Amino acid sequence: MSLDIQNLAIAVADKKIVHGVSLEIKPGEVHTIMGPNGSGKSTLANALLGHPKYTITEGQILLDGKEITKDSPDKRARAGLFLSMQHPPEIPGVSVANFLRLAVGAVSGNPQNPLTFFPELTKQMAGLGIDPEFAKRHVHGGFSGGEKKKVEILQLLLLNPKYAILDETDSGLDVDALKIVAAGINRFKSKNNSVLLITHYNRILEYVIPDFVHIMVGGKIVKSGGKELAREIEKNGYLSFRNDDKI
């Protein structure tokens, strides 16, 4: 049982961005990928969920032993993958409540009765400090950065996937919002699921404690370690890793 990324190479418009990344994420584990802008972190995240803009040119993705490298995004979601996007799009005309109800129904294969779904939605929103009125608004329509990130974590809690990929969930958050989002991630974590948390900074890792930290530079994972590696980045930045990788 694992999300097994094997020697993955990814290109965008014929330009190679990710070069031979291998990573195995087992249930109960929290992995963090850190790296400077342009290092390929978001490219990796989007390719794992099957975004058509990103082409896997080498390697494969195995989910619980089954290859999903060529599966469509909806099949990957039903198999247990989830992506919280760095820049989630607005969906005009679709309310947050209906979007989440239909998403849970589509991924689980069990259509959600509004009478039973909405009380659970309201409960999870309260836990994230989201105003109940947001359920009536269009998805991400006019939301602040922090509000968007909270709704992404709300979606995570309701879908309850096996493997959650969180792409810069901490970006644009003030301290209070960061604590709320981190608490939501910790509420999701269990021995039966896992988290791949992508971030630039150590600050969210003060609240969501990783088991493994991986440094990504130039489309490669150049070093892996524990929480102490994130503290090293906080202190010294990425320059030494760029030098080590001759970039």
How would you summarize what this structure contains?
This protein is of the alpha/beta class and 247 residues long. The chain has helices at 41-48, 73-79, 96-108, 114-127, 145-159, 175-188, 227-236, 239-244, and strands spanning 3-12, 15-25, 30-34, 54-63, 66-67, 81-84, 91-95, 138-139, 163-167, 194-199, 212-217, 220-225.
CATH architecture: 3-Layer(aba) Sandwich
CATH top level label: Alpha Beta
- Largest sheet, spatial ordering of strands: 6-9-10-3-11-12
Quaternary state of the chains: single chain
- CATH topology name, in short, is Rossmann fold
- Rounded Rg: 18 Å
Q: What's the domain count?
A: 1
Mean pLDDT: 92
Ends distance? 35 Å
Report the biggest beta sheet as strand number plus sense, adding barrel if it closes. 6 strands, mixed
Number of helices: 8
Instruction: Please report which band the strand proportion falls in: under 5%, 5-15%, 15-25%, 25-35%, 35-45% or over 45%.
Output: 25-35%
Order of helices and strands: EEEHEEHEEHHEHEHEEEHH
Task: Give the secondary structure arrangement, pairings included.
Layout: E1 3-12, E2 15-25, E3 30-34, H1 41-48, E4 54-63, E5 66-67, H2 73-79, E6 81-84, E7 91-95, H3 96-108, H4 114-127, E8 138-139, H5 145-159, E9 163-167, H6 175-188, E10 194-199, E11 212-217, E12 220-225, H7 227-236, H8 239-244
Parallel strand pairs: 3-10, 3-11, 6-9, 9-10
Antiparallel strand pairs: 1-2, 1-4, 4-5, 7-8, 11-12
Helix pairs in contact: 3-5, 4-5, 5-6
Describe, in plain words, how this protein is organized in 3D.
The structure is a single chain. The protein has a six-stranded mixed beta sheet, with helices on both faces. Strands 2-1-4-5 form a four-stranded antiparallel beta sheet. It is globular. It has a single domain (3-244), classed as P-loop containing nucleotide triphosphate hydrolases (Rossmann fold), CATH 3.40.50. The relative contact order is 0.18. It has helices at 41-48, 73-79, 96-108, 114-127, 145-159, 175-188, 227-236, 239-244; strands at residues 3-12, 15-25, 30-34, 54-63, 66-67, 81-84, 91-95, 138-139, 163-167, 194-199, 212-217, 220-225. The protein has eight helices and twelve strands.
